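B., you asked whether I could sanity-check this one before it goes into the benchmark set. Here's the sequence:
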Amino acid sequence: MRVLIAPDKFKGSLSAVEVCDAIERGIKKFDRSIEIIKHPLADGGEGTLEILNNHFKLLTHSVVVKDPLFKEIVASYLGTEKTAFIEMSSASGLQLLEPQQRNCYYTTTFGTGQLILDAVQKGYNDIVLFIGGSATNDAGIGMAEALGYQFFDNQNNRLSPIGKELINISRIEYKHIFIDLNQLNFTVVCDVKNLLYGKNGASFVYAKQKGASDQEIEQLDKGLKHFNLQVEKYLSKKVATVEGAGAAGGLGAGALCFLNASMKSGIRFMIDQTNFHRHFLNKIDLIITGEGCVDKQTLEGKVVKGISEISNQFNVPFCIVSGVAKDKELVIHSLKPIAINAIMDLNVSFDDAILNAAKYLEEIAFERIRSFNVKVY
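And here's what the prediction gave me:
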């Protein structure tokens, strides 16, 4: 029997590699002869570089950059000989700020632009930008500023590249940017489909968790609408209705406008990059996937969603493990797993579930493989 284990991380508890290891231990407790294939994954958010580095030998480049509040930090990105992989969260991520510091009304993606500039200066022509986990809502004007774009108000004053100032952009200057876009290929990888503005846009969906007040969220949304008009006027780019434009506080739109980037689904990109399909050259009997929280957002393009599509493609049964499982009926109806098992269903406390996630995943994996074997044999 061959079992393919392909989860995302359990955020705040276990890395994807640790999830794989815990599930493997549970299966081996039941039957050591079962062949295990471990293939940890990510969806383009935080932790994606760790997964890529787990599959390939990548070079690490460390750079002094500005964090979301313009303080100097050291951030890193990875690369092959030809391609640079940059996680915007390493320079502009929410995890870089203490809870009391978080407010995307005042934060910037400037540090992300500094990482991009460093990669270009080191000779990388292909740059992949992962845009999950941002602390920002500046539509990428911070990133653009670091690359030589300039933004002015109607009094011809230079604007600080933060979310608050989007509403004040009156002119965009780009004649003297530091990179040659004709010589570069940018790919933006993300796991959300939000539009730039509106009720399903960057501000209304994500700004509250990034510290913005209700009044500031209203202003940020107006700023994104205004930004859209200005980039159409000065850059001839229309991004308002592009799925993913609202990702990372509008950085999705900014990458399209300022980098001429193409956009790809995070899980599809990772499946392709890590050659996931090779495992199906031989028979797979069961796939086990999972993530920290399974809910209706899982259906938007998370790891579990991607694995469900492949499972159906190759007609292989799959099951889902998680820390928390919500919207179970919707997920089962949409994705067709044979089972969903959550740690919180074991009647443990939330703190216990976080602290002892590996132990509980072992137990779940043991019971799941035992049940599967009874049904199969």
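One thing to flag: The radius of gyration is 22 Å. Otherwise nothing jumped out at me.
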